[in-house]
Amino acid sequence: MHRRLTTLGMTATVLLTVGTLSSCSADAPAEPSANGAADAPAEPSESGAADSFAAIEDAARDEGQVTIYTSLGNEQVRNDLVATFTEQYPEITVNMIRLDSGPLTARVASEMEASSPTADVMQLVDNILYDQEPEWFRELTPENVPNLESWPDRFIAANGTYVHQQANEFIISYNSDQVSDVPDSWEALADSPEVGQAIMANPNSSASFMGWAMFIRDELGDETLEKFGGNVGGLFESSATAAQQVAAGEVPIVFPAVRELTSAAVAQGAPVERITTTPTIGTSHIWALPESEGGSPNAALVWMNFMLSKDAAAITCLKGDNMPVAYDDIPDCPIVGDDLALVADYYPDLTDAVRQEINGLLGL
Predict the structure, then answer these.
(1) CA nearest neighbour of 20 among 120, 137, 143, 139
(2) From the CB of residue 361, how many other CB atoms can be counted at a distance below 10 Å?
């Protein structure tokens, strides 16, 4: 039986710069406005962030920009998020920098260790850095992020420093022009001749891939990992690159794949098929605000509140390719259920010894 998520406490660069917009706020203290903001007047605090969301919005407009680090792989999602935010806050320019999760984590860690963070907001697919260095990140509360008020407790860090916004199942992705008979379970794939045509994620390239390997071991035993290690055709380091390769027919099968990274190829008619496997595990998009003496602390809070809005959930859902953790009434968007394991379930046990054991089973 896989573990339940109990306590969350947890390659190209793309730069999007877009002029952003303002929301309307009244002086009522509690009710959300049309964009999900709670309106109330207040004064800025010593940290530079204002004390009510109405004041936060005003201060964010004065700051005029926000810099976001993200591992979101779907370009259309990134563009749509920025465009929708811009419709609400046209005075704020959004600078969005995209990297794969592993390099992005390393970049953030390097900047924070040097006390020179560039990002006002960041998003990763694992919460290891957030949990290891909680002092690097700001506390989020319903007062400074009003949409947090209705967020499920399961998806808020216990110390309030990060939030899971949506989840994404790991799948098997394959090119139907190259192969047609692909098993629909991890165990069957490990035993199948098709696995020799597949490339598998290198668990050392990302904590989320190592979490997947831990899940396989937990659910299906050491022997399944040993079969993957002995039979798989090769390894990949980047989910985005692997998705492009399977769409182009350069490799027949990719696993564990990220569904949203194949969405554009499927929409364009590429011969890409996707299988939701059993047992099922997924990643989540986890947002946090780095501590900084400079930057745009108020614009960061406004962006975070937007990311917890129904508008953002509908955009990141991709008509079911991702699953919101809140808002159960978005068309074609199934909400995350209790039966979905998340790689975050496994990170507390992800020690160096466990990494070595998994690498040994895979022959790495």
Answers:
(1) 120
(2) 21
Give pLDDT tens digits for 318-343.
878 889 999 999 998 988 877 788 88
235-261 per-position pLDDT tens digit: 999 888 999 999 999 999 999 998 888
d(CA 157, CA 145): 14
- The kind and range of the H/E element at 276 are strand 272-276
**How far lies 268's CA from each of 83, 239, 258, 277, 322, in Å?**
22, 19, 17, 24, 19
What pTM does this model have?
A: 0.77
Domains of the chain, with CATH numbers? 14-167+283-338 (3.40.190.10), 170-282+342-362 (3.40.190.10)
pLDDT given for residue 15 in this prediction: 42
- How far is it, in rounded angstroms, from Cα 124 to Cα 298? 21
* Residue of 308, 338, 28 whose CA lies nearest to 149: 308
